[in-house]
Amino acid sequence: MRTRRNPDDLRRERAAFAEKALLYGTFGLLLFGPLAFGAVEPWSIFLLEAGSAALFLIWIVKQALEGEIKIRRNPLFLPMGVFGLLILSQLAFRQTAYPHDTISLVLLYFSYAVLCFLAGQTLIKGSQARTLTVVFSLYGAALAGFALLQGVSSNGKLYWLRQPRMGGWIYGPYVNHNHYAGLMEMLVPIPLVLALTRLASRRTRAVAGAAAAVMAGTIFLSGSRGGMLAIITEFIILSVLLVKQKRSLRTAIGVGVFLALVLGLLTWIGGAELSKRIASVTSSHSEITNDVRTFINRDGLKMFLKKPVLGWGLGTFPVVYPQFRSFYTNFFVNQAHNDYLQLLVETGLLGFATMLWFLWTLYSRAIRKMKNWPSEISGAVAFSCVLGLSGILVHSAVDFNLQIPANAALFYVLCTIAASDPFVQPARKRRVMRSQPPEELPASPESLHQPATNF
Q: Is 168 left (phi over 0), alpha (psi -120 to 50) or beta?
């Protein structure tokens, strides 16, 4: 005879299943983007938007099953909301040069916002963060391995099958090697920071360090000079923090081994070709030259001065730019090759000020959680996010990684995680932390979980 189940238990089981689906669906969508050539084609953009919408519906169903709406607040949601209102005002007051492109990009930005929101609502436990750290480390290492294999056996096609329609400098699953470097700049700190913490076994830390070395090596082997500058910036930030905190000799040896592995990989595979790329000013591939970048920057400033407050409209740079172009080229200039300049041109001073507000909030929140990063999961995650975000923010001064949907989605989700409340720890873990000597305790009460807001 079948036993009738309690409806409350059934609802709780379904809500728990929905929570897992939301967590792994959200981060699975982030992992999908790079594999789909950076999610730059209409079909992959559609899947990114449709997937985020479907996940949001699952979140609504989960709230209905639980009988209440629980929302974890994040300080970045306010500047994100203000930026959204700014773009809507461009449309409402007809301040965009081409409404169709602005609306298309609004839909894409809305999918970014949904992914950020869902990441903030579902990634709340330290155990979840540990699992995702392993997943992203393995993913990054596998992608780096694929890039290395493709680099030594390339036939000029993506996955050895797909011929890019407009050419490019293929590396990994990206048509543009700079955008592969941008992805790796955000992924490398995840296994690297794990290797320097006390949050895993010695063997796991050794494997994580080796994975980080391979991933970092592919940034140099990709030939992206902006990527090289970005990863060097990350190494400098890491070194300064380690020196400031007076880490142990074991940590210094670990960093030395990591750098030795990177240099060994570069010497073995890169050789003279890498040296030529670093020293070169012009490019042998079909990518934009430094002279052209200078012209675009100068023309972009003229565009900004023409409409300095609200800009020309989100997503309208390629439409407006031809009337300001001051040089001849056969290439279609679809981006400014400087994310800061493009934001200034498309959204004006108001949009740029909102970006500064966003970054200030991000770093001020993340730095507070980093004080005990070697032994506390919230601090370690915040530190790895800060390193990766700092790298790509440097790279954005000479490229347009944040115009690539896969990279932009990952960037904004990492921002949300870095600025979120500390992860929930099991009760036994909290008791252990309280029993530690005073110098090992977290420096602020933020290491304890702050409850969600109930409506």
A: left
* Number of CB atoms found within 10 A of residue 414's CB: 26
Task: Report residue 323 as tokens.
Answer: 């009337």
Torsion of CA 293, 294, 295, 298, to 10 degrees: 120
Local confidence pLDDT in tens for the 455 residues of the chain: 456 668 778 888 889 999 999 999 999 999 999 999 999 999 999 999 999 999 999 999 999 998 888 899 999 999 999 999 999 999 999 999 999 999 999 999 999 999 999 999 999 999 999 999 999 999 999 999 999 999 888 888 899 988 887 777 899 999 999 999 999 999 999 999 999 998 999 999 999 999 999 999 999 999 899 999 999 999 999 988 888 876 666 676 777 777 777 777 777 666 555 555 555 534 444 456 677 888 999 999 999 999 999 999 999 999 999 999 988 877 788 899 999 999 999 999 999 999 999 999 999 999 999 988 999 999 999 999 999 999 999 999 999 999 999 999 999 999 999 999 999 877 555 544 444 444 344 444 444 444 444 43
* CA distance linking residue 388 with residue 371, whole number of Å: 18
Chain centroid to Cα 278, Å, comes to 25
Residue 133, SS3 per DSSP? helix
Helices (H), 266-395: 271-279, 290-306, 317-320, 339-369, 377-395
- Count of residues in the chain: 455
pTM score, two decimals?
0.89
User: Of 386, 455, 377, 371, whose CA–CA distance to 419 is shortest?
Assistant: 386
Structural domain spans, the chain: 12-454
Q: Is residue 171 classed as helix, strand or coil in its secondary structure?
A: strand
